[in-house]
Amino acid sequence: MKFLIKNARILAQGNNFDGQKKDILISDGIIEKISDNITDIADEVITNDNLHISIGWIDIYSNFSDPGDEQRETIETGVAAAVAGGFTDVMLVPNTKPAISTKSQVENITRRAIGSAVNIHPIGAVSKEIKGKELAEMYDLHAGGAKAFSDGEVAIQDPGLLLKALQYIIPINGTIIQVPDDKSISANGFMNEGITSTRIGLSGKPAMAEEIMIARDIELLRYTNSKLHITGVSTAKGVSLIAQAKKEGLQISCSATPYHCHFSEEDLEGYDSNLKVNPPLRTLADVKAIREALKNEEIDCIASHHTPMHIDDKMCDFENALSGMEGLETVFSAMNTFYTDKNTLINQLTTTPRKIFGIEIPKIEEGSNACLTLFDPDCEILINKNMIRSRSHNNAFIGKKLKGRVIGTINNNKVNIAR
Q1: Which tens digits make up the pLDDT trace of 256-287?
Q2: Backbone dihedral region of 227: left (phi > 0), alpha (psi from -120 to 50 degrees) or beta?
Q3: pTM above 0.90, yes or no
Q4: Of 62, 116, 269, 409, which is least surrounded by CB within 10 A?
Q5: Residues 114-137 pLDDT 10s
Q6: CA atoms of 249 and 229, how far apart (whole Å)
Q7: Residue 67: is the preceding peptide bond cis (ω within 30°)?
Q8: Residue 407 is inside which H or E element, if any?
Q9: What whole-number distance in Å separates Cα of residue 46 and Cα of residue 309?
Q10: What distances in angstroms separate CA 74 from CA 3, 30, 78, 313, one per listed residue?
């Protein structure tokens, strides 16, 4: 089939057409022509008053809960959520049941997504069954297609184990992804420790639990000269530590979540369990610092930390609710609301994360496979429950007015356009 995209502004840094409005003709999944005023007959013409287009967006940290917790999400519903959010590629954390800690499990996840509108990139576990005791067979995981290694939602507590993992991945040019959380400090907390936690009567997790973990992991990285990615960074000091490590020339990168850019500890005064996340929401000063670090690219990219939860996991006392927020569908609108430079945001959704993890970067040029995201960055939208395509709805952005709308994706010869 042929699809004709009319008058779309292309955002693709380094591309000859960057910033220009062009027509794009796609035939059987291949970009056939990029030009002004294409008049070829097409099966469908895609138009919008403020149509923008980029290479397909990638999320580097999502949990599709499949296998093991299909009541929260499945590969199929996760793909639907990703498409609704404008993503053509998603990296999946290994926190499934069983955990993605063997080559066959990596291959199974990848195989199940073949032919879908989203390219799935499983992240291999660092430790066997994510128990933090002994290394998984990381070479085999890499051979099976694992793009990076992490224990995902279970931060690696044993420095000796992380040291070995960092050394182990050097020959395969791998990257360790770590959520910074020292459980010996934060185990009994439900939210950020401070005046707000005291006022509303919830046990706190001190920011120190995140910052000590970042500092420790930087020391291990310095010793090994390996590659490390810190995701979910949520404090100003954490950003500063990572920025200093970059200046030293260490191979370190980091990402932040949309919810750490919008919500603070003060939003927990209503005990909304959808805002119970890890790392926890921090101070307003930290929110401002994370926003600024993203805009000036001290923080390299964005990670959704898409963690769907069954209603029973959230509709309970705050203390008993599980941590995590669903969110693939709202990443772009949430981030675009405060960015002043669209190009920076698009780079952080497209090329930068692919470079960090060694994933092939699509091209917007004639003869290339069409891997595209279409969007309107300027319209205001009210997020409602009907927009959520995940099996779960634990998304605290529901009811919020944000800026920017995903129009659709084109990938793997599949066209998904919002009607």
Answers
A1: 999 999 999 999 999 999 999 999 999 999 99
A2: beta
A3: yes
A4: 269
A5: 999 999 999 999 999 999 999 999
A6: 14
A7: yes
A8: strand 401-411
A9: 35
A10: 30, 29, 6, 17
